[in-house]
Amino acid sequence: MGLPSCKHLRFFGCHLNSMAGKCVALFVIALVFRAAMLPTFSGFGEVAQNSFRVINKGSLSSDSELQMRKNKFLEVPQIVWGLNNQKIAFARACLTARMMKRTLLMPSLSASLFYKEIDLLQPISFDKVFQFERFNSLCNGFVRLGRYSDLSNRTQVFELQKGSGRKWTIERDLDQLREFSKEPYDGYEVIRILGKNPFLWHDHWPVKDYAKVFDCLVLVEEISKEADKVVSKIREMGRKVGSKAVFSQNASNSESPSSLPMPYIAVHMRIEKDWMIHCKKLEQRFNISQICSSKEEIIGRVGNIAGLKTPMIVYLAVADSLLEDNSILNGWKEDLLNYPCGGDSILKGEGNQKMKEVTLADQTTYDAKVVGFDQDKDVAVLRVDAPNEKLRPIPPVVSADLLVGQKVYASGSQ
């Protein structure tokens, strides 16, 4: 059929060369095209959507590895307070850097505990507490730590003031992070966050993300050994108590008492002055009275734990340098044998030089100060501010001269 004859064709009764016919023809062609091509596009959309979902549900490293940048950095204020709080603050800083697709510059931790005397804080580098390379290896693709030596130009720094106060809501905080993750701020090599330490920042991340960061934290050997000393002391105390319990009950167990592990319970004595001030403010703000706990309340709750088998070692975790009450060892049941460990003693690697209190046999109490100690032997020498007549020296004796029933004190190796 020749082209000229096409003009005489009719389509549903309409000549193609008429305006109405042309419109109908275009409409039919569009319907045919849609019927033929839409499944393909729909399938493509579904595949693309499914691919996006697969990426989101995949491993944390699969999508983050492509986004994490080694030439953009985030700097945060010094991380302070107890070691657990510092770990939480560090993880929050890591997750903030991850959101901004930046490498976190190795932060400074704190080796001392102070409430408000910020100038007295003893900074300690992250890699003096945790293994730097090990962290990056375990958290590869999720978060990343960098050193200041990695910077190419220290003048390309943008200072970001972190908001605070009741009006600084979690939504405003998140909007700020999103804003400064874009241009022109994203062009800076370093974004330095100013303000409060990361523990006080708003939280935007699930617990599993914090757990991922915690799993990457491995103590350096020196501090790990200090922690092992604490564990060994707890076990040693347990062996002594277990040995006494076995022999006092005339147990016929063939196992050696030293092979019987003594159970222990760890108690976080949260009665430090910083927390007591904070919790009392919270109670006033929310008009409730169940946030703060006194020493007596904690001791009572531990002693009334259902199913608690005694005797048992009670490991007391407390920030001793922030204590206003030094009598945390008093008031426990006889079958709950307390073992204190200052929250800052491991990082500092030294004993507590604070003033102590010593109660004599006649129930009089005097101040005392540690003048010497041996962590390995768990022995300390105290200077007691008491009258001379109250401090009677113990005369040395020979065992052959002792009488049956006479009270003696012995020291030395077993």
Instruction: Specify the helix fraction band.
Output: 25-40%
Structural class, by secondary structure, is alpha/beta
Mean pLDDT: 76
Which quaternary structure do these chains form? single chain
Q: Main β-sheet, in a few words?
A: 5 strands, parallel
- Low-confidence segments: 1-16, 37-66, 254-258, 343-354
Give the amount of beta strand, in percent: 15-25%
| Rg calculated over all Cα atoms | 35 Å
CATH class category of the largest domain: Alpha Beta
Number of domains: 4
Strand order of the largest sheet: 7-4-3-9-8
N-to-C SSE string, H for helix and E for strand: EEHHEHEEEHEEHEHHEHHEEHEEE
N→C terminal distance:
118 Å
**What is the overall shape?**
elongated
**Number of continuous helical runs:** 10
Number of strands: 15
CATH topology of the largest domain: Rossmann fold
Second-tier CATH architecture of the largest domain: 3-Layer(aba) Sandwich
